[in-house]
Design brief:
376 residues; Rossmann fold; eight-stranded mixed sheet; eight-stranded antiparallel barrel; 7 helices; 20 strands
Length: 376
């Protein structure tokens, strides 16, 4: 089952541990993750709890969806008797790598790979080879990852990772590899945060160059907002593609107006000082528009463009209650009432990104040079 780790400035991650790995003390990473990184999936297998420590470090640096690979049979001690079970599984795969019966069963996972630009595979090694459960996952799904930007992180006690890298390239034959694999062994484990940060910055991940925008209309005045490139902002942008969202906001604390969105977004809260113009997600489902400053645990959604603090106070009607705001992707949210309702048409239809579409779910589109509301 897919688990989304977007907490604490978010998530991408990995890794795992191998035989006899010990926990190391983390240090604060100084480097920054790649900007505008495309939608990313992290797939990891963990035999020991070391992987969860590393995953925790990684999720402080990057946004990603995270999937854990789990053996179908629970409770097996792969390390017992000098890795007797683990080594026999590796031997079976090595002897017959094209035979599906050679790979141990894993719990089913449901992943829409088309959603992702980048995939990071995180695995321990067993006897120099990729851990058998991760090999099972890639044997089942490697072809679905064709054309994706794929990166690899390998954890071991001391053994080198060249055979594990070869396993990955065999199992994902049509991947676009982003660079060298990251190797974290026991000697380097205490440096994990810095190693991750430097490695992320070195990889050629697929990036998103398009700047997402939305508009806020209050009392007939519309201001644009430049959105963040995080999961919450992407989800809000996708929601607004279905049509404008109207929210009722109230002044609070002498620095913001805020209110319920009516739906939840994936938050990545961290303690930050938000300032004038910031658009903030609070408690997963509340939007805050700031005209002052406040320090709290928030997720940034974006920033209102081009207004100073005095202008923001006027635009946001600071001090008032029951302020009606319309969030939209259109240039004039107040014009929506004047739009006709389109039905079947043979004319070319475009979404609000300018892309031609064949299907028109409920939302705002452009046809014959005019904005049209579809109610299907």
């Amino acid at each position: 089952m897919i688990q989304t780790f977007f907490r604490r400035c978010m998530a991408l991650v990995t890794l795992l541990a191998a035989a006899s790995c010990s926990e190391g003390e983390g240090i604060e990473a100084k480097a920054q993750a790649p900007a505008s990184m495309g939608k990313t999936l992290v797939v990891y297998y963990s035999f020991t709890n070391n992987v969860r420590t590393i995953v925790g470090e990684m999720t402080k640096q990057v946004s990603a969806d995270v999937v854990e690979v789990q053996p179908a049979e629970e409770g097996l001690d792969y390390a017992a008797n000098n890795y007797e079970i683990g080594s026999s599984l590796i031997a079976a795969i090595r002897n017959h790598p094209e035979d599906a019966e050679s790979y141990p069963s894993i719990k089913p996972v449901d992943i829409d790979f088309q959603k992702y630009d980048n995939i990071i595979v995180c695995t321990p090694l067993w006897w120099s080879q990729m851990a058998a459960p991760m090999q099972s996952f890639l044997f089942q799904n490697g072809q679905k990852m064709a054309g994706k930007h794929v990166a690899l992180i390998v954890s071991s006690a001391s053994s080198g990772i060249s055979s594990t890298v070869a396993d990955a390239k065999r199992l994902i034959p049509e991947a676009v590899w982003t660079g060298d694999a990251l190797w974290i062994n026991d000697r380097k484990r205490s440096q994990t945060p810095t190693l991750l940060a430097e490695w992320l910055a070195s990889q050629t991940f697929q990036t998103v160059t398009e700047t997402m925008k939305m508009n806020i209309t209050i009392d007939g005045q519309t201001q644009s907002v430049t959105l963040e490139s995080n999961q919450a902002a992407r989800e809000l942008h996708e929601k607004l593609q279905e049509g404008p969202v109207t929210v009722t906001l109230n002044t609070s604390g002498g620095f913001e107006i805020w209110g319920a969105l009516g739906f939840s977004l994936t938050s990545s809260d961290e303690r930050i000082t938000a300032g004038p113009g910031d658009v903030i997600l609070y408690d997963d489902s509340n939007i805050c528009l700031l005209y002052g400053s406040n320090t709290w645990s928030y997720t940034r959604l974006g920033k209102i463009d081009g207004l100073d603090e005095s202008q923001l106070r006027n635009f946001l009607k600071a001090g008032e209650r029951n302020i009606v705001a319309v969030l939209s992707l259109t240039s004039d949210a107040t014009a929506l009432n004047d739009l006709k309702v389109a039905k079947d048409s043979k004319d070319l239809i475009f979404n609000m990104k300018g892309q031609q579409v064949e299907q028109t779910p409920k939302g705002i589109y452009v046809t014959k040079g005019k904005k049209v509301a579809y109610n299907k």
